[in-house]
Structure formats: structure tokens, C-alpha cells
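Standup, Tuesday
Yesterday: got the pipeline producing C-alpha cells again.
Today: sanity-check two examples.
Blockers: none.

Example 1:
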Amino acid sequence: MRLFIAVTFSQPIQEKLEGILCLLKEQAFAGNFSSRENLHLTLAFLGDIPSCRLSHVIDAMEQIHTKPFLCSLSSLGCFGKMKKEADSRESSVLWIGTDYCPELLNLQNELTASLRRHAVWYDSKPFRPHVTLGRNVRLNPEFSEEHFCQNLPEMCQQVTGISLMKSERKNNKTVYTELYRKIL
């Protein structure tokens, strides 16, 4: 099973993110945009985990003692360069990031330490808290990131739990299914 652990969003935040996605789609001539139901903030990507190891992942999640906290989403960003050229072949990932949130950083650190103690592999790339909005996005040349960011809605959510998610392909779509939720 292909798994990751994430913060999921309330319906009001999902609606705001969906509105941002619609605006970005209007400003893009290409891209593979995330669907509303797949929007999340990954804390740890686990990759392919055999079902016999699932209990180790859940045990690691149960060791988390972080209390609920507020987290805000506020800035547009991109892994790679923001693409505005039709002929560019470079891949880019467009995302919305969080404001600085020490509680979120502590949660991710506590989670990965617990995964290590339970001998659960995870991708150890540096943590950059973000919500992926689209991949291979090519924006219109007149797109203004500064103007776009000035008009982002306020998005603040109480983080009250973390979710173990399964990722799979169904009917040529990526589908995420929550397998377990740890309440903070």
C-alpha cells in the first residue's frame, strides 16, 4: 500500500482552496491540478508499506502527544520555477504554503521521531509545509504572483488530528482514502 500521513482540511478551507484552484486554472494554459478531495498537507510520505506493517505505522502515530493548534495557509509557491513559457519542458509543482507555525514543525518532528522508533521508513527530505495545487503548471505570461497572493482569502484552521492516507489509482485518477485518524 502506498501511504502518507497528513493534515486534512475542514470543508470551509477545502472550499477556499477550491476557489484558488479555479482562479489558477483560469490563469493557466496547462497543468494537472489537484482535486478538492485530495488537498492535504503531507507530514510524512511513507511510500509502499506492506499491510503487515500497518500496525507499526498506527503505533507510531499513537505516540504523538502534540495538542491541537492553529495553522494558516497564505503564500503561493513553486518547486522549480514558476512557468510562463509554453515550450518549457521543466516540471513545476505549484503549491500554497503555511505561515511559520512552530507547532506544525514540532508535530512533524515528533511524528518522524516516532516513525524511526517504530522502524517505519519515510522520505526524509527537509519538511516544507505546503498543499500541492498542481503539477506541470504553465501560467499565462500576464500572471502576477504578487497580485494573486494579495487576493488570497484568509485560511486558518485548528489542526485537531493527523490522518494515515492510502494513495491509489482508480479510473485514471489518484484517490486518497483515510485509513486511520489520530486525534490530537
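Example 2:
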Amino acid sequence: MTEVPPPDWAALYQKHRDAMYRVAASTLRVAGRQDEAPDAVMAAIESLMKSPPNNVQNWEAMLVHVTKNRAKDMLGSAAARRELGGITYERDDPASEDVASEVAERLDRQADGAKLWDSLSILDARHRKVAWEYLAKGRPRSEVAAELEVTPARVSQIATKCLKLLRDELERRGVKR
């Protein structure tokens, strides 16, 4: 039986660090401790390096899962429990959730988001401004209307047209709603 060489930890970290930081910050945000996300990520990497798992099929899922558990460990410490008034967080049991499918679903949403971003190119400058400022950022119609020198009602009309054009384009590209 041949021995499997250890993974290239630096390459894995570089490739998946954004996902790891997002999950750590998200988990720690409940206690207002999202600034400790780098500590959770480093603890996850260190624990994996000390005891590398065998036969990992999806490294991103593994790294995200371990990072989430390290962040929960930080929240489960005695000091954190005191700070949160006794709230505790249980670690995820790898068998209890399908981490790989969760990561795959997130990657599909990111791919759909990229298609949406590309679809914005079908809009002219004024329509893109309305789509971004009014629809995406939620700015008041009156402000966007003043910038474009149109009425607020016209901003609503442009927004409706933008949504129809984008829906049609995304449907053409095969993006599900």
C-alpha cells in the first residue's frame, strides 16, 4: 500500500482562505467577536497540519468545517460563555450535516451571481445606474431621480424594465430563480 503524501498546506490556505475567514467571522459575529476570525482560521490550519485527515474529497468543505468548529470552540470557552450569558454552541458533527453539498450549493450560487454580473452588460449606462443605485443599494427613488434628472416615477419604470431584461437574460443563460 502506498503512502499518500501530505497536502500542500500553503496552497490549500491560499485557495480557500476567503471562505474560511467568512465562515469564522460569521460564526463569531453572534458574540461581536468577528475580529477574532484570523485566530479561528489559524487554529483550524494548525489542527489539520498536526493531524491531517485521510481521503479528503473536498478540501474546501473540510477547511470550512474545521474553521467553523474552531470558531465555535472559541465561543464555547468559559470566558465566552460568561460574556454571552451562558449561551453555548455545539460543534458540528461531520456525520450530521452534509458539508460537501453545502459548499457545492454555495459555489453554484456564486456562479449564478457571476452570470448576473455579466448580464448587467446588456443594460445601458442609465439602466445600470438605476439597477445598482436603486435596486441593489436601496437608495431612495428621489435621490436617484435627481442624479439622472428624471422623475421618481421614471426611475420606477426604468427599474421595472431592468428587472425584466435581466430576468430574460438570466433565463437565456440557464440561471434558475
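Quick observation on example 2: The chain has a mean pLDDT of 78. The longest helix spans residues 152-173.
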